Amino acid sequence: MQENPEYDDVVADILKWFGSRIVKLQNAGVKDIIIDPGFGFGKTIKHNFEMLQRLGDFAIADCRYLLHFEEVDDLEITFGQLPLRRFNGTSVLHAVALLNGADILRVHDVKEAVQAVKLIQMLKDKL
Q1: Does residue 67 contact residue 39 with C-beta atoms inside 8 Å?
Q2: pTM
Q3: Fewest CB within a 10 Å sphere: which of 44, 53, 72, 113?
């Protein structure tokens, strides 16, 4: 799957995969479910950008969702940047994710992520 991932519709397929698992957890009494759509895991660059464009669709799962971008190689492939120089691109991805409903960011670049979270929160508070 990592070498040649195929989806009919990447977001719909991921939501379908999560669906039965969410129901099982809810039936078991679990109330706080967090999903991670898995940017970079078994997905092409096109899949990752499609998921990013359609993050709002994950709200249908009625769960909080966590996102992680640092280890996604798309920034390196797309822009030719080494991992240590990806902070700006990663911060942009964090902002887009937060504006589109992401609840939790798993990060390595903490300082930059905190700045992004604070700026997006200020923007949301003004709306």
Answers
A1: yes
A2: 0.74
A3: 53
